[in-house]
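Ticket #4471: structure output looks truncated?

Reporter: J.K.
Steps to reproduce: submitted the chain below (153 residues) through the standard prediction queue, then opened the result file.
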Amino acid sequence: MKLIPLLIIFTVFIDQITKYLIRKNLSPHEVINILPGLNIVHVSNTGAAFGILRGAGNLFFIGISVIAIAVILYLLIKEKRHLLPYSLILGGAIGNLIDRITIGHVTDFIDLYVGRFHWPAFNVADSSLTVGIIILFIEILRTDKKKSEKILP
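Returned output as attached by the reporter:
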């Protein structure tokens, strides 16, 4: 339990430092090829995941983020389980919220692609959120499986 705040802080720190470095060293839409299938780019995302709801406005996303952070904090404190995924989700949500409050959009920079197909650019916070959600689903599925094994002969 004592490592949970450190994981959240570490996630936010790595997210913010990488975004700062991108904003400081790359022009908007500049691309640096790292490996086949991986570029570093500088993209400003005013929407949600994959840039959806771009027209909703920054205040809408700030409000949604604050509500999500409050819910995850509540679950993290109240449940005393799923600590790893909740911490990753919380760190990611805080990282993107900081961008929205300080610069009015989220900085994305990781560009994965195969041939001409590019996954929408993302960042460390997005990765943290995604990994946290995947781990949470796995933990919930394992818990449900154990419960059903106890019920069924």
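Triage note (M.O.): checked the attachment and the full token line is present. Helices lie at 3-25, 58-79, 83-103, 124-151.
Status: closed, working as intended.
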